[in-house]
Amino acid sequence: MNHGGDIWNWVRLAALGIIWGSSFMLVEIALEDVGPFTLVAARIAMSALILWPLSYPLCGGLPKRPVVWLFALGAAILSNALPFTLLTWAQTYLPSGVTGVFMAIIPFIALAMSHFLVVGERMTARNTLGLAIGFTGILILFGFDAIQQLANGEGTALAQVACLAATICYASGSIVMKRKPDSRPIAFGAATMILAAILSTIIALLQEGVPTTLPSTSSALALIILAVFPTAGALLLMLRILETAGPPFLSLVNYQVPIWAVICGAVFLGEDISVSLGIALVLILFGLAISNGAFTRRKPV
């Protein structure tokens, strides 16, 4: 299946890139009055309240088989509750643009993990070259003094490690999604969000307790937008792209997310774009392009 030539698929892909890329800016705004753990719990819970009712008219409700719920639990932990928590906490120390650039690492980690965990998916010389170039960008993104900062327990370096851990979670979650039993996507997504909401709420209550004050209008609005668009809405949009164009076409969004994260952070939050950040972004995206065969000459059909 390859319907990437459909103009509407390109529109959907561009929208998904903007939605996911701008989410880091929205998190930054919401964090002004909401704790990171409470923010994650509220974001996922609102998303679950959107997807759960939608699952009934769209696909007959939630999954019925226990094995599907087991995989939904894995996706809830690895693709939602844990990485959302790590990234949101990291943004209490890092600019939103820097956090967004880390997301470009996910395909590299997923590629390396798939080599060992998914039958028939082996790394090639081209993949390895792309991975090496991308890894160079990752080192620059971390900064060469990161080891010393970690030894001193500095928050910025720990936040970078949290971002890297989040990318490993997302990559692991993609493996879970590949190996899950057949199920209706909306039903599986709703089940995943319900379980993630329960887990993230428990974490938030243990870490921050019950909120005693209401957030400002700007923080509350950012939180609502996060739940509606980058969480629930993006899931529906992603599933539509997968249905009409397939995973290879969807993977093109990986080029957009870090770029939009940097742009939104600079334009709306006044974040600086350092030389090292720019070089790291270019190297990571260049490595991703090589790994995906963007510079490989294709035979005419």
Task: Explain the overall architecture.
The chain is mainly α and 301 residues long. The protein has 13 helices and no strands. It has one domain. The radius of gyration is 19 Å and the shape is globular.
The gist of it:
With 301 residues, this protein is mainly α. The chain has helices spanning 7-30, 36-59, 66-90, 96-102, 106-117, 125-142, 146-151, 155-179, 185-208, 217-244, 247-250, 253-269, 275-291. It starts with 6 loop residues before the first helix and ends in a 10-residue tail after the last helix.
Write the layout of secondary structure elements.
Blueprint lengths: L6 H24 L5 H24 L6 H25 L5 H7 L3 H12 L7 H18 L3 H6 L3 H25 L5 H24 L8 H28 L2 H4 L2 H17 L5 H17 L10
Helix pairs in contact: 1-4, 1-10, 1-12, 2-3, 2-9, 2-10, 3-8, 3-9, 4-12, 5-8, 6-13, 12-13
Spatial extent as radius of gyration: 19 Å
Report the biggest beta sheet as strand number plus sense, adding barrel if it closes: none
Quick one: overall form?
Answer: globular
The beta-strand count equals 0
> What number of structural domains do the residues give?
1
Distance between the termini: 15 Å
What are the salient characteristics of this protein?
13 helices; 301 residues; mainly alpha
